[in-house]
Amino acid sequence: MSREQFQECIEECLACVKACNHCFNACLGEENVNMMAECIRLDRECADICSYAADAMSRNSPFAQEICSLCAQICEACGNECKKHDHDHCQKCAKACLRCAEVCRKMVT
Amino acid sequence: MSREQFQECIEECLACVKACNHCFNACLGEENVNMMAECIRLDRECADICSYAADAMSRNSPFAQEICSLCAQICEACGNECKKHDHDHCQKCAKACLRCAEVCRKMVT
Amino acid sequence: MSREQFQECIEECLACVKACNHCFNACLGEENVNMMAECIRLDRECADICSYAADAMSRNSPFAQEICSLCAQICEACGNECKKHDHDHCQKCAKACLRCAEVCRKMVT
Amino acid sequence: MSREQFQECIEECLACVKACNHCFNACLGEENVNMMAECIRLDRECADICSYAADAMSRNSPFAQEICSLCAQICEACGNECKKHDHDHCQKCAKACLRCAEVCRKMVT
């Protein structure tokens, strides 16, 4: 795995943390919060794993590949939930999640 | 500050993480999630700082006092929000938060 | 998976965070820090995943099993490193890690 | 506080996480690890608070100012330790820490 791949993956994870946390906060302010419950839950799950993954990669963790594999899975679940909702923050979050999932998956193979 | 005080504060922080996360999850499953939005937000804030504080104290962080001071403030805000709600998980969470705030405050003086 | 199993696993993860962070701190104060470098590195890796796993389980994360599976792997690596060293903090940490690995593995099957 | 200020502070915190974790990893591989013990300890402290601060700011935490105030203090301590060492990773880390401390301090006033 090249150093560039690592850097790209760290950046995608950090972009995903920001998108998920922005979406989390915005969902809690929507008119119908009930409809956003699963989105809120997964935004937190996804922000947490992405933050952990970026942290681990930046310290050159010996478990970077396994962590990225888990991260890809959680990002994909969050992206699939977010893309069901029309809100701009959800659509943007879905894109960040699915892109991050793809980059994380490339770290593993 | 005695070793026993440290241990007690770590345990209260970890109990608070569990209560806040349980409340977070339960709030997302309530009938009226709109009413719980502020509780959901503060449960996450409080779980995060308590987890960070317990982690820092257990590695004997040189910043333990400053972290506990911040933790006390966030726990108090979360406890005050939670106690407004009648749900059993909110009432239990309020108690855990306010107890943790008190123990954290004692670390500082 | 029963609620009791979940509770037990959360407790083992939190005990492991405390043992790893205590060992991390003690290793940095040893006479020969060079010899402890791998232990220091893995103590941090293990404390981080265990803290994340306990947090995730306590909010009933839909990814609890996958997280526990990763946690078991990192705990085992840390336990195997720690048990090479005679220091009391390393031996205690090794026991906490290997016990946590075992309990996490039971969550998965 | 403007949205631009927030964004700048998040970016500085994330840059500081990366610099501290890189330095942590590099210090553990130095010939004389004993001399780097305090640097290793503070790198972890600083990476943890910066990661937490960036996470909190990106979800618009009501405690952003208090968290940034604590972050500034820890960044400053880490920067002051790192700048004592000639290693390139320490010098770069010192710069990232002291810049982050400054930006965090501006969030508070």
From TrEMBL, chains A, B, C, D:
Pfam families: Csp (PF03860). It comes from the Bacteria. CDD domains: DUF326 (cd08026). This is Four-helix bundle copper-binding protein. It comes from Fictibacillus marinisediminis.
